[in-house]
Amino acid sequence: MTKETRSDRSDDKKNTSVKQPASAGTASAGGAKEPIKPGKLVFRLFLFFVMYIVYKFLTETILRLLTAVIVPAIAEDIGGAVASHLIVYQTDGLDIAPDWSAIITGISFVAAGLMIRSKALEYDGKYTPKKEYDKKFALLTGLVTVSLAVVLNILIYKLGIAALSQSYTQVAEEQYSCSFIVGLLVYGLMTPFSEEFMFRGILYNGLKRMYVGYAPLIMCSAFFAIYHGNGIQGIYGFLASVFIILSYEKCGRLGICIMIHMLFNISSYVLTYMAEGLENAGLWTVFGLFLAAGAAGAYLLYHKKEDKKVSSDDKT
Q1: Reduced to 3 states, what is the DSSP secondary structure of residue 89?
Q2: How many domains would you assign to the chain?
Q3: What is the pLDDT of residue 93?
C-alpha cells in the first residue's frame, strides 16, 4: 500500500512537471508562460511595422536630400561623368539619376531591415521550431520558386492584366528605369532581405502567438499583399507569401524565406527583360516547361517523403 502511494505521488509529480503548450496570446520561454493580452500584442506588431516604414522613409529622405545638396556643390571636384551618375538636370530642375535613386531605395530597405533584425531573429527562434532539412529540400524549393515566378509573370504579361492597374504601371516604370544590374541588386537582393525580417520574422511569428492553424499564414499573406499597394503585385505577393510560409514551416529557418523571396524577385525581374524579346510561341513554351518543372518539384517536395513514410509503416 505504501509503495503504491509513493508511486502514485511520483507519477503525479512527473505529470505536473510536463510542459503544457502555450495557448493563444501566451509566450513560452524556458518553460515559463508569459501571458500577453492580444490587444497589446497587436499594438506591438503594429508599432514594429510603423518603425520599419518610418525608418526606411527617413533614411531614404536623408540620402536624397544629401545627394541634392552635396553633389551639385562638389560636381567639379568629382568630375562631370561621376556627377551624372548621381544627379541629372531636367527642364524643371535637378533630379536624382535613376541608378543612384534605386540604390538609395535599396540602402533604405537594408537599413530598416537591420534595425528590426535582432527582434525578427528572436521571434524566429522562439515561435518557429527548427527542423532538419537537406540540400535536396533547398534545391527543390528553389526550383518550385523560380517555376512559380515564371508561370505567374507570363500569365500576367500574356493576359494583359498589368495594363489594368495604373499604380502597377507606375511602380514598374520606376523599377525598370535603372540599369539591369542595379535593379537586380536592389529589387532582387536588398529589398527581399529587408522585407522578410518584417513580414515573416516579426509579423508572421507574432500572429502565431495569437492564432492557430492557417490563420497566421492567411493574415500575414493578406497584409503583405496590401502592403504592395496595387492589385497585380498584391495577388503575386499573396501567393508568394503563402509558399514562403509553407517552406518556412517545413524547415524553421528564416534564411529560407529570404532565399525564396530573392528568387521570386530575381526571376520576375529577369523575365520582364526577356519577355519582350521572345515570340508568342516561345513564351508559351517557356510557360509549359516551367509549369511542368514546378509541378514535379512540388510533388517531390511535399509528397515523396510522406509516401515513403506510409510504405514503411505498412511493412512494420
Answers
A1: strand
A2: 1
A3: 74
50: in domain: yes
Q: What is the pLDDT of residues 105-156, one digit of tens each?
A: 999 999 999 999 999 999 999 999 988 888 899 999 999 999 999 999 998 8
- pLDDT (0 to 100) of residue 33: 44
- Is 3 among the domain residues? no
Instruction: Say if residue 310's pLDDT is above 50.
Output: no
C-alpha span between 237 and 51 (Å, rounded): 22
Is residue 8 included in any domain, yes or no?
no
- Tell me if 94 is assigned to some domain: yes
DSSP string, 239-285: HHHHHHHHHHHHH--HHHHHHHHHHHHHHHHHHHHHHTTS-HHHHHH
The runs of H, that is alpha helices, within 79-134 are: 80-84, 98-127
Cα separation, 47 vs 243, in Å, equals: 26
Q: Identify whether the C-beta of residue 154 lies closer than 8 Å to the C-beta of residue 271.
A: yes
> Distance from first CA to last CA of the chain, Å, rounded?
40
Identify the domain containing residue 249 by its residue range: 36-302
Residue in the block written with cell 497584409: 223
With a pLDDT cut of 90, the percent of the chain lying above it is 55
The reported pTM is 0.82
Q: What is the pLDDT of residue 89?
A: 76
The model's confidence at residue 27, banded by pLDDT at 50, 70 and 90, is very low
**Is residue 110 within 8 Å of 193, Cβ to Cβ?**
yes
C-alpha cell at 106: 535599396
Pair 20, 72: CB distance under 8 Å:
no
Cβ count near 28 (within 10 Å): 16
User: How many angstroms separate the CA atoms of 230 and 170, rounded?
Assistant: 10
